[in-house]
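pasting SWIM-type domain-containing protein for the record, 228 residues
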Amino acid sequence: MHQFNSYDVEAYNWLKQIPPQHWARSHFTGRAVSNMLLNNLCEVFNSKLIEGKDKPLISCLEYIREYMMKRICNVIKVQKKCVGPLTPSATKIMEKNVNWASQYTVRWNGSDKYQVQGPWQDQHVVDMVERVCSCRKWELTGLPCKHVIAVLNDKADNGEEVGELHTYTHRVHWLETWKAAYVYKVEPIKGQAMWPISECPIKITRPIHKNQPGRPKKKRRHSAEEKS
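structre below
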């Protein structure tokens, strides 16, 4: 922030007015088990519904229902091909951390804490009881960072029982947790011609639609804060 202040004072003052837990990773908590501050999931889902937004309400809901049926089936096909205890994305991150961990040296303090030093002046403290590292990646993401894996390698070299590596990850990254999230399915329904007729005496008619001049807008409307 001090370096940023010398670059742009006005932007520095604007950021100082916002609570740091809303934008600074250093103030995040491990409750969400994620270090992302983006709404990419919402943006991806929103982009998939572009074709259904122009439809009437019931047709739009039917479009979303059919999309979710297809989406769940595609995810299940990917899950059947997965091997190992972790999800594919978590497995890739762990493989990188394992490769980097071999370049670190570990020093034990005699209790439950370790000092881990790397070749790039990268030195952190790992507490195996509290399961935290001073780099905070283990706490934020739920995945053991390279410093933690280096400590586990050192303990294994000294004859200690450390167990499987995936047991040190949060359960949200386990493959069985991912499968449990897709246990529930979207039920298929009959066609609209076979739907029961409502017994309500009042018939609701749709409003008169008038096409606006110009090309219809597909993108969502940005809020005033996003525009600023």
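Strands lie at 105-108, 113-117, 123-127, 132-133.
The two ends are 21 Å apart (CA to CA).
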